[in-house]
């Protein structure tokens, strides 16, 4: 199933969208758009897919997503069958990165927020006090207008920029070929992996990029990434494969090799280890 581009209508006198999504179930298909998006579930339960991540949502669930990442919220079957006595209900905020002008993100005050925008390319689920404060702001924004509405959005930006109460959802490989220009050792290694995971990538070559002996590099990598080099590369490859599996015209063998795996058996094994399902099962899940 290919993701389709969808856009929310925007009022001519407003710089960003605040939208109430309510009905028997959430109607949006697997889709993407150029806007950043915050989704707050007020009522309903079900399964959400963000990139190659599959999770579950219920009341109060709050997710922040970057531009271009495909996603969908699928209600539990009881909502489709009419077996619940209330409607699915959510609040959605859409904004462009330059909705207040070309220089908006260049001002010093936005520096911390820019980091969250970069992380949002993988989707971010928020929790704790940060989630509670943002939820309260979003509920109030529905009836706000003018500068109060804009001020509430900036309050949300501030909470996002200064919070550590979040988890990233999609794997880095799903947003393949990320532009990385960091000059430090950590950045050089990450850039090397992202640019070469679909090739015959080797541990000695990666160690040379970091200007380290192989043993030293292995310890360095585990300290920074909390997994081995090989495990991390396989995570990237599986994430990219998830992206390709959305195209139903491509066969799984082709996808395995294009994602950097040398044989189908290893691809299936690593995919099952990381996603708790086979590639075929994953394809059926996102097509449901």
Describe the structure concisely for a colleague:
With 288 residues, the chain is an alpha+beta fold. It is 41% helix and 18% strand.
Layout of strands and helices, then pairs:
Elements: E1 4-5, E2 17-23, E3 31-32, E4 36-43, E5 46-50, E6 53-57, E7 62-65, E8 71-75, H1 77-80, E9 88-95, H2 111-119, E10 124-126, H3 128-141, H4 146-161, E11 166-168, H5 185-196, H6 203-209, H7 214-225, H8 229-245, H9 252-258, H10 264-275, H11 279-287
Parallel strand pairs: 1-3
Antiparallel strand pairs: 2-9, 4-7, 4-9, 5-6, 5-8, 7-10, 10-11
Helix pairs in contact: 2-4, 3-4, 6-7
Shape: globular
CATH C-level class of the largest domain: Mainly Beta
The name of the CATH superfamily of the largest domain reads: Regulatory protein AraC
Largest sheet: 6 strands, antiparallel
Cross-sheet strand order for the largest sheet: 2-9-4-7-10-11
Structure description:
Helices cover 41% and strands 18% of the residues. It has 288 residues and is of the alpha+beta class. The protein folds into two domains: 4-168, Jelly Rolls (Sandwich), CATH 2.60.120; 173-287, Homeodomain-like (Arc Repressor Mutant, subunit A, Orthogonal Bundle), CATH 1.10.10.
